Amino acid sequence: xxxxREIILLTVLIFLFIFLNYNFIDNKIKESVKNSDVKIVxxxxxxxxxxxxxxxxxxLLGINSPEKNEDYxxxxxxSLIELLSNKNVTLEYxxxxxxxxxxxxxxxxxxxxxxxxxxVKRGFANTYIYNNDEYSSALNDAWNECLAVGKNLCEKSNDxxxxxxxxxxxxxxxxxxxxxxxxxxxxxxxxxxxxDEGRKNFFFGNFILGSYKEVNVxxxxxxxxxxxxFWKGYDYVWTAAGDTLFLRDENGKLVLWKGINR
Length: 262
Description:
5-stranded mixed beta barrel; 18 strands; CATH 2.40.50.90; Immunoglobulin-like; elongated; alpha+beta
C-alpha cells in the first residue's frame, strides 16, 4: 500500500513540475524557433543590406554602412559580397524585426562568424544599435578594434585642425552640439561633416572657426548666424536611448566621435 502511495505521490509531483515549468519551456522553444532562420543569400545590395532567395530584404542589424557615393560605399559592398554571396546564412533576430522601410532586421551568421560585427571590424560600418542585446558588446569591441588599427572609416584625420577641434557639449534636450577650437590659429571646417549613427548628415558650408572660438550646431530650420549653425530638415537627430556623434574632415577622415548613453 505504501508503495502505491509513493507512486501516486511521485506522479503528482512530476505532473506539478511539468505544469509549473510548461510556460518557461514553451517560451524557450518558441524563442529558439522565432529568433533564428537559415537562408541562402541571393545578392548583396550594399554594405549592410542583402536579398535572400525568397526576395526578402535583410538589413544587417546593429550597423550602418556608407550610402551610395559616400566614401567606402563600394568597398563596403564588395566586402559583404565576399563574405556572403551564395552562402547559407543563419539569421538571428533582435527585439525589432523590421525597420522603417519594411526590411527585416537581423544578425547574419556564417560558420559561427557574425558578419555584422565583421563589417565593423573591417572599417566598413559603424555601430547602429537599436536595442542592447547579446551582440552589442561584440559590436562595440569591433568598433574599438577598428579605431585601434585606424582602417577605412576609422582612419584618423591628419588635418592640422583635427587636434584642435573638441566637442565641448552635446545637449540632447536642445538638440545642440558645441565645438571649440583650442588652437592658436583659425580652422577651416568647410565641407567637414557631422553624422549620427544612421543616415543624418550635417555638412559645414564655407565656415572658419576662429582661434579659441566655439560654434553651436542646432537641429532646426532657423537662419544661421555668427555663433549658431542650423541643421535643417529634422525635428531631432540625437536619440537619448543611445546614439553616436561622428565628426569627419573634408576627406571623410575621422576627427572625433562620441557615444551617447552607451
